[in-house]
Amino acid sequence: MFTSHRVAMFSKLDRSGDGVVSTADFPRLAKRKPEALALIAAIGDADSNGDGTISRSELEQAPPVMFERADTNRDAA
Ligand SMILES: [Ca+2]
Ligand SMILES: [Ca+2]
Fold first, then answer.
1. Dist. CA 58 → ligand 2 center (Å)
2. 41 CA distance to ligand 2 centroid (A)?
3. 5 Cβ partners below 8 Å, 6+ apart?
């Protein structure tokens, strides 16, 4: 199912396990300029309440294009 796929993706993205996806979950990416900007833009797309992080419900409502952008290493995960 589409939704369970997103839930699985959320667990993958939330590497710190604090329940939100943010730049803190991508410490290496966040240090590299082009990737960091793409990451921040991708988070902004899904961040509907503007707190700079993506909660599970925000991810469930995010447009699909966000996932293509978030997958910056192109491993389709
Ligand atoms: Ca996190
Ligand atoms: Ca948010």
1. 7
2. 13
3. none
| Ligand having the closest approach to the CA of 43 | 2
Which CATH number characterizes residue 8's domain?
Answer: 1.10.238.10
Q: Is 76 within the bounds of a domain?
A: no
Q: Ligand 2 center to residue 33 CA distance, Å?
A: 22
- Domain span at 50: 2-70
Tens-digit pLDDT string for the chain (77 aa): 567 787 888 998 999 999 999 999 999 888 888 989 988 888 998 899 999 999 999 988 876 655 555 555 666 55
